[in-house]
Amino acid sequence: MNHDPTPPQALHYSAPLNLNAWIREHAEALRPPVNNKQIWANADLVCFVVGGPNQRTDFHVDPYEEYFHQLRGTASLLIADRGQFERVTIREGEIFLLPAHVRHSPQRPEADSLAMVIERRRAPSDLDAFEWYCAQCGAQVARREVSVKKIDEDLPKAFASFFDTDAAGRTCPDCGAVHPGRDWSTWHAHLAEHFPQA
After folding, report:
1. pLDDT tier at 112 (50, 70, 90 boundaries)?
2. Which of 61, 130, 138, 187 could form a disulfide with 83 if both were Cys (CB 3.0 to 4.6 A apart)?
3. What is the pTM (predicted TM-score) of this model?
C-alpha cells in the first residue's frame, strides 16, 4: 500500500480566492443554459456558484445536507412533500441549510441573481435522485437516480433522460396529465393554478 504520510498543505486547493473576481472570470458559465460552476475540483466539499435566471421542474433528492447562501437577488426552493408543495424563499444575504433527503427544486427567476451552494462530495455508492411531479395532482411522474461525480456535467444528462422521453414517459400515473418536460413556464402555470399556496 502506497501511503503518503505528508499532510496536505494549506494551499492544497488554491490560494485564497477573491470570490467577486472569480465570479467575473466565470460569468459566462453562470448564465443559461449551464448556470453553475464548481469552484474547486476534488475537494470533500462541492462548492459552486449558481446564477439566474433558472427555473426548473425537477426536484433534487440529495443524500446529504445542502448549504445555500444567496449572494445577489432572491431565490426560492420549491419543496415537494406527500403530494403537496411549499416554498422556502431565500433573500439576498440570507443563508439556509436544507436537511438531507428533502425533495427540492431551486427557482432563480431573477436575471443576474447569484448563490453559493455547498454540498458534500458523494461516495461512489451514494445516489442522488431527480424527480418530476404532476403540477395538477402532485403525484410523482418520474425518478432518475444518478451517481454524481461532476455536478455541471452529470445533471444535464439526468435532466435530458426525462425531457427527451415521449409523452407516455411523462404521463402522470394518477391523473393522466402529461408533464410538459422542458417547458417550465407551463408546468409552473399549472402549479399556480392547482397549488396556489406554493
Report:
1. very high
2. 138
3. 0.90
